[in-house]
Amino acid sequence: MKKFKGFTLVELIVVIAIIGVLAAILVPNMMGYISKSKLSSANTAAKNVQTAVVTWKADQESMGKTSDITSGSYDISAGSDADTGIEGAIYTALAGNSNPGYCYYGQDGSGTSAIVWAQWADTSTSAVWGQYPNACSDYTAFKNTSATFGTYYSGEWS
Questions:
Q1: What is the DSSP letter of 130?
Q2: pLDDT tens-digit profile of 101-110?
Q3: Which of 39, 80, 145, 148 has the greatest number of beta carbons closer than 10 A?
Q4: What integer pLDDT is reported at residue 142 of this predicted model?
């Protein structure tokens, strides 16, 4: 009976070639999933910002307090539990379940101080990563846009 001493060089090369082919197919697909996931997360964070601001405004009005607010921004990563007002509402809504980032919320321009849109980005100087409503659903179009943070885009992302 012959003892098994190991694999031949040909067998090892075949296994390495198979692994290389699988990696060449899977890696580009996985990169697309990561990008889509980041975009989806940013759009969700923007929606949470808009919801937090609208809810805070409704709470203030229900207590008979002045709730006139203007467009504004907030840095989640610099925030804390001690924040009050709109900033506290945003921090409470996002601190535990979103990546630290920077948000911008804006009015509809009707003069009613209604906050109707929000944006999310990594920093105040970066491009927009997420927006609500009219969130971009196509990462390729979103990535190539020159969206300015703090400017709402109501049309198609290009």
A1: E
A2: 888 888 766 5
A3: 39
A4: 57
